[in-house]
Amino acid sequence: MGYRLLADLMVIIHFAFIVFVLFGGLLALRWRRAPWLHLPSAAWGGAIELFGWICPLTPLENALRRASGAAGYSGGFIEHYLIPIIYPRGLTRGIQLVLGCLLIAFNIGVYFVVWRRWKRSEAEAT
Question: Model confidence over 74-95: pLDDT tens digits?
Answer without folding.
Answer: 455 455 566 677 777 887 888 8
